[in-house]
Amino acid sequence: MTTQPEISIPSTSTSTTPKPYTIYHITLRLPLRTFTLQKRYSDFTTLHSTLTSQAGAPPPAPLPPKSYFSSTTSSPALAESRRIGLQNYLQTLNTDPNDRWRNTSAWRSFLNLPSSNSNSNHANRHGPLSRTQQPITDPVVWLDYHRNLKSQLHSARLQLTKRDQASSAQAQHECSAEAKKHLIKASSMITALDSGLKALANGTWGREKLGDGEMRRRRDLISAAQKEREGLENLGNAMAAKNALDGAIAHATKGDKDKLLAANGDENNASRRPVAGKGRVLGKETDRTRALDNQGVLQLQQQLMREQDEDVDVLAQAVARQKKIGMEIQEELIVQKDLLGLLDEDVDRVQGKMDVARKRIGKIS
Predict the structure, then answer these.
(1) Within 13 Å, how many C-alpha atoms sit on residue 126's CB side?
(2) What's the pTM value of the predicted model, to 2 decimals?
(3) Could you give the CA distance from residue 106 to residue 247 in angstroms, rounded to a whole number?
(4) Residue 76 belongs to what H/E stretch?
């Protein structure tokens, strides 16, 4: 079931235009974010008539009546009364069991909600993309999906860490399966985010084009996420290869031991018995060497040396893997630093534009 946003109109303000009017501040609280819209009464009347036309029936709540003898800009009591009426109007539409009005494009456009039902549902549920992988065409939902993508990558990393610490084969298999599931979701989300970004860059789907700085920042976000996903996938493959190698070593060790014992069976028991003045000098015997002659002990020693060499190779692979993880973390920090630099530049540019706008407003007033 789709979670509806919480809607309220906590305050109003008066415009600074030559002909002042009342602005109603609409606050929408979604699972991932909260934002505020500014509407005037004429916007509500347009919404009401459009909803009636698109849904085929008037909304379940009426609009506050228009006053012809007084103005909300000069009467605080009238402004407050209309604010409460408009808030009740929106909340009634938002909570009505019949969603025919909420499913119209007029309602989503008025509240700046995603223009696609599928995108809206996925963003509200924090769920993965649908199999159709429809591109995300809303700039705000795009950021919500990116947060979900980072969550999927973080979950995959946690599962790989648990897999590395698991002691049983069953636990390792379960962690690997969960990590792979998160990585598959992340791959699908990266594809949809990239497609949506291309649509936003071209201004298709009826959306305004994003600025060059914002497009560059979002491309960097996709690139960093793709690099992180590939690193996690390589790490999972390395862990799987290490497990296969450990299993092969254990199997080979047991087979070599069986061959060694079979080659020195009962028919050679006499040759394994030491003869006075001949054969090896017995020192501190172990269970593994007690039944072996000199040749058997030599073969056992060679086998142990091979096992130690193989253990060193496995350790070298683990060290190389940790080194790779460290390098990837360093690259991620560099990317984040560059993103912060771009953000600072964008903030400075927007601040400059705001200063120019303030000067123009000062000249006009």
Answers:
(1) 9
(2) 0.39
(3) 62
(4) helix 76-95
